[in-house]
Amino acid sequence: MNPRVRAFLIAGALLLVALGLLLLFPAGVAFAEMAARELRVFWWLILLVALAIWLIWGVGRKPRS
Q: How far apart (Å, rounded) are the C-alpha atoms in residues 46 and 43?
């Protein structure tokens, strides 16, 4: 499997997981809609997404020597 196919499969899996979560948690969709309208809440949404990204790619990594 070449890197391009692997990247496509990972991106597709992430998209499916995101869509599944949106369908599973409609309250989260409502929160995101409200956050898009209200700037104060929108910054909290950005921070939560940044934390999620950091946890996904940061947890479990070996520290550099």
A: 5
Alpha-helical (H) ranges within the chain are 3-24, 26-37, 39-58
Query: Would you say 57 and 43 are in contact if contact means Cβ atoms under 8 Å apart?
Result: no
Closest among 60, 56, 34, 55 to 45, alpha carbons compared: 34
Closest to 11 in 3D by CA, of 58, 49, 19: 19
Tokens linked to 22: 């949106």
Q: HSE of 39 in the Cβ direction (CA atoms, 13 Å)?
A: 0
Quick: pLDDT tens for 2-44: 989 998 999 999 999 988 988 898 888 888 787 777 766 677 7
Residue with tokens 């309208």: 37
